[in-house]
Amino acid sequence: LAEIELSIRMNPAIASAHVNRAVLLVGNGDLDGAREALEAAVELDPKLYGAHARLGRVYEALGRPGDALTHYEIAAQEPAGLEPGIRVNLGALYNARGEFDKTVSLLSLWQRDRDVGVAVHRVLAEAILGQRRYEEAVRQYEFALAIDEKDLQTRLGHGVALRALGVPKQAMEIFESLAEEAPDSPAPIVQIAETQLSLGEADAAGETFLKAISMADSPAPIEARYAAVLLQNGKPEEAVALYNQVIDRDGASSGALAALAGAQRAANRADDARATLDRAVRLFPDDPSNYVRLALFQRDMLDLEGALDSAAAGLEKHPDDLTLLRIAATVAR
Distance between CA 138 and CA 125 in Å, rounded? Predict the structure, then answer.
């Protein structure tokens, strides 16, 4: 590493040297340093597609999927085409954003190619499932399993697809088997809970969600799903308590406060919901959706003057936000 850094100081315009430095920094666990090195490389040579691919992976590891997506898409422009790993990463990010059509367009060429590995087929199957083409999704998962029948993520997705297709008992067998094979993973436990819900076993599902929450290192996504189930089952006070617990532990965010306000409103606690929405605007003024939610709440409470004031305050910071413009125009009539 010292030799590479010395060569960069002597001639900082060699892009490949920055890439080599990044590789070593990743090996040392210095992701921020690797990011800086790769950014320098692609600034020197914007068509260094391999560096864009590496930078995308680093951004993913840093928890910045939007930036990762940008660089994966640049890497996808390489005339020689993408390597399978990048196809998987790019498709998985599209899936996470609900852009399933993009994933299908990206990966469908290899839909029956056994040489690209199970992950390509799994991500494609996830996209097909997201398009609600359940029978085809099941077939794609089964094609993937023919390549690697032991892949846990593919087996889990296969079960989800079967449940969506309307065969929850077969799905349950898969999830229970996975829970035995991976006893420390909350993922199959969550899917057991979802399957119990589909079978009308709401109380059992609640207990199973709580088990999954207790197992998870980062339980917030499971807690959010369980809170939504509580609301659907007419238990808004329990949902409020759960959202408050998550916020106390992990800190507030726009999304968490919006969910809490929704649960408070469902529990007929309008004053608390208003206070929560005010808190979201105060803490996160750069997010226009907080002004939108507050203004819509005030409109629903027939506080039209307050709704107009909130929309106007939002427009001061976000003058081009179409939703705020629409609210202000509607309320002002």
Answer: 8
